[in-house]
Design goal:
Largest sheet: 8 strands, mixed
CATH architecture of the largest domain: 3-Layer(aba) Sandwich
Order of helices and strands: EHEHEHEEHEHEHEHEHEHEEEHHHEEH
Strand order of the largest sheet: 3-2-1-4-5-6-14-15
Number of domains: 2
Strand content: 15-25%
CATH superfamily of the largest domain: NAD(P)-binding Rossmann-like Domain
Number of helices: 13
Structural class: alpha/beta
Distance between the termini: 31 Å
Shape: globular
Radius of gyration: 21 Å
Length: 361
């Protein structure tokens, strides 16, 4: 199969769809891989590495896109819609529930779009979301600690505190992969950590991980109203696969937070769970609303592309190999991959996304 790897165009997105080692696996299996020049440079993979792996470097995005299977990291942006082709396979993160324009473009093109974030194993795990969720969760605390610094607009709190001064408080909404990894980092920094979740079984599991080092709370309105105003760093880690995240933190609750507190919503690409938070970028990552610093970068792992590209490829490559070998028929034998199809033959097919856009069905 002919496989294209275009350079990412999202603001300061330095990850790349295929690493040189992944390209080698594909070329050794008889496939041809066309990599846009410079696509891997930001992640530490120069063109020469792709050539040594058997890939072919092409000079333009159009040539990388003009292939049977296109492997990316982030969703196509409006300037890339012109490259979408009927019958083409697109394998990348899509997050359609919060992006009507992209959804309409994919439907109109006739492309078969498979979303990393909706590939789902029989036990409900999301194998292609996990590696980036781990990174985003860990980054959320690292970034939050930085923006709590006074010079960055924060309230000047050191998360770990010092002897004689209490540590900062980190409140995490959601105890999934992102929330767990955020808690792990916050504990390491010495912060006071609270996780809220509606799944009692998950809270019980987290107790086996963290014991008394984390305060585990059932998430309901009164509890949120109690803990959020005391948060120095509030991390949104709520994900509903294929759907918009529910709003758990209304503006009225943000108003009660300390001036200079920080909010980071890792699921902002799915709409986020904080009413006052909207999408930002790596170039302009924060803004202040109601006196609180808001961070809404949807591609957080793009800040650590060398690590993130390899972590993502470790999970995506087996699926890429199947798609390269069998095309769309790979979905017939791989149930997890079949769950990932969002758009096919001018139709919106993923059940959760169809609920968001019933008029496009």
């Amino acid at each position: 199969m002919l496989i294209g790897v275009p350079k990412e165009t999202k603001d300061q997105e330095f990850r790349v769809g295929l690493s040189p080692s992944s390209v080698r696996v594909l070329t050794e299996n008889g496939h041809q891989v066309f990599v846009e020049t410079g696509a891997g440079a930001g992640a530490g993979f120069p063109d020469e590495d792709y050539i040594l792996a058997g890939g072919q470097i092409v000079p333009t995005a159009a040539k990388a896109w003009n292939q049977e299977l296109v492997v990316k990291v982030k969703e196509p942006l409006p300037p890339e819609y012109q490259f979408l082709q009927k019958g083409q396979l697109l394998f990348t993160y899509l997050h359609l529930a919060a992006d009507r324009q992209q959804t309409e473009a994919l439907i109109a093109s006739g492309v078969s779009a498979i979303a990393y974030e909706t590939v789902e194993l029989p036990d409900k795990r999301l194998p292609l979301l996990v590696p980036m969720s781990i990174i985003a969760g860990r980054l959320a605390v690292q970034i939050g600690a930085r923006f709590l610094e006074r010079q960055q607009g924060g309230r000047g709190v050191l998360l770990g505190g010092v002897p004689g001064v209490k540590p900062g408080t980190v409140v995490i909404l959601g105890g999934g992969v992102v929330g767990t990894e955020a808690a792990r980092m916050a504990i390491g920094m010495g912060a006071r950590v609270q996780i809220l979740d509606i799944n009692v079984d998950r809270l019980a599991y987290l107790e086996t991980l963290f014991g008394s080092r984390v305060e585990l709370l059932y998430s309901e309105s009164l509890q949120l109203e109690t803990v959020i105003p005391q948060a120095d760093l509030l991390i949104g880690a709520v994900l509903v696969p294929g759907r918009r995240a529910p709003i758990l933190v209304p503006r009225s609750l943000v108003q009660k937070m300390h001036p200079g507190s920080v909010i980071i919503d890792v699921a902002v690409d799915q709409g986020g769970c904080v009413e006052t938070l909207h999408t930002t970028s790596h170039s302009n990552p924060t803004y202040v609303d109601e006196g609180v610093v808001h961070y809404g970068v949807p591609n957080m792992p793009g800040a650590v592309p060398w690590t993130a590209t390899q972590a993502l490829n470790n999970s995506t490559l087996p699926y890429v190999v199947k798609l390269a070998a069998n095309g769309i028929k790979a979905l017939e034998t791989d149930r997890a991959l079949a769950k990932g199809i969002n758009v096919h033959d001018h139709q919106l097919v993923h059940p959760a996304v169809r609920e968001v856009f019933p008029d496009l069905c």
